[in-house]
Write a structure and sequence with these properties.
Number of strands: 15
Largest sheet: 6 strands, parallel
Bound molecules: uracil
Helix content: 25-40%
Shape: globular
CATH architecture: 3-Layer(aba) Sandwich
CATH topology: Rossmann fold
Structural class: alpha/beta
CATH class: Alpha Beta
Distance between the termini: 35 Å
Radius of gyration: 18 Å
Number of domains: 1
Length: 210
């Protein structure tokens, strides 16, 4: 495994992942589970936020306590399935800003192309966490990482619920400084670039489009 990949083995995360994989899980529950899983993943991905000591007056005495010191975050969902994770991540860090990135696969070159990018103006002062439930070929994630590097994001992490070995290899080798958080690494991609066994089309299941 790669140094920059962290697999979240927490029982709550693994339980939710099983429900997400289940084809009988309907859209409403699927959406809720994606958001809840993103919240739990975000807890892990923010483990290194710096703290500073402060003094707090409790009803009884003064306590030396800690608060997060000045780090600014941005969540960057990749359209469209990443949107399902944004609400869950924001519930944990409500002061974060949200940027959006959209990519499509050029039918001629089969390359992933950036068609939409709207990032916080001060992205160069923010640590960016990219959200995409499925890391399949890794092409969209790499487009998003390239865009965030171009705009000078302070640091970049990637949160994906399921990764393929191919996607992980691509991102981890091209961008070894990007920490990748995922809940499972599945077997392979099929001929349509879906993750097997995976959970199907995350966007369709979140938005009920199929
Ligand atoms: N995107 C999905 O939604 N599912 C996959 O399996 C691969 C990419």
């Amino acid at each position: 495994m790669y140094n920059n990949v962290k697999i979240i083995e927490h029982p709550l995360v693994q339980h939710k992942l099983s429900l997400l994989r289940d084809k009988t899980t309907g859209s409403k529950e699927f959406r809720e589970l994606i958001a809840e899983t993103a919240t739990l993943m975000c807890y892990e991905a923010t483990r290194d936020l710096p703290l500073k000591e402060v003094e707090i007056s409790t009803p009884l005495a003064t306590a030396k306590s800690k608060i997060i010191s000045g780090r600014k975050l941005a969540f960057i969902p990749i359209l469209r399935a990443g949107l399902g994770m944004a609400e869950g991540a924001m519930s944990l860090v409500p002061a974060a800003k949200i940027g959006h990135i959209g990519t499509f696969r050029d039918p001629k070159t089969l390359e992933s192309v950036l068609y939409y990018s709207k990032l916080p103006e001060d992205i160069n002062e923010r640590d960016a966490i990219i959200l995409d439930p499925m890391l399949a070929t890794g092409a969209s994630a790499c487009v998003a990482i390239d865009e965030l590097k171009k705009k000078d994001a302070k640091s970049i992490k990637l949160m994906c619920i399921i990764a393929s070995p191919e996607g992980l290899e691509k991102v981890a080798t091209l961008h070894p400084e990007v920490e990748i958080y995922c809940c499972a690494v599945d077997e392979r991609l099929d001929e349509h670039k879906y993750i097997i066994p995976g959970l199907g089309d995350a966007g369709d299941r979140i938005f009920g489009t199929r």
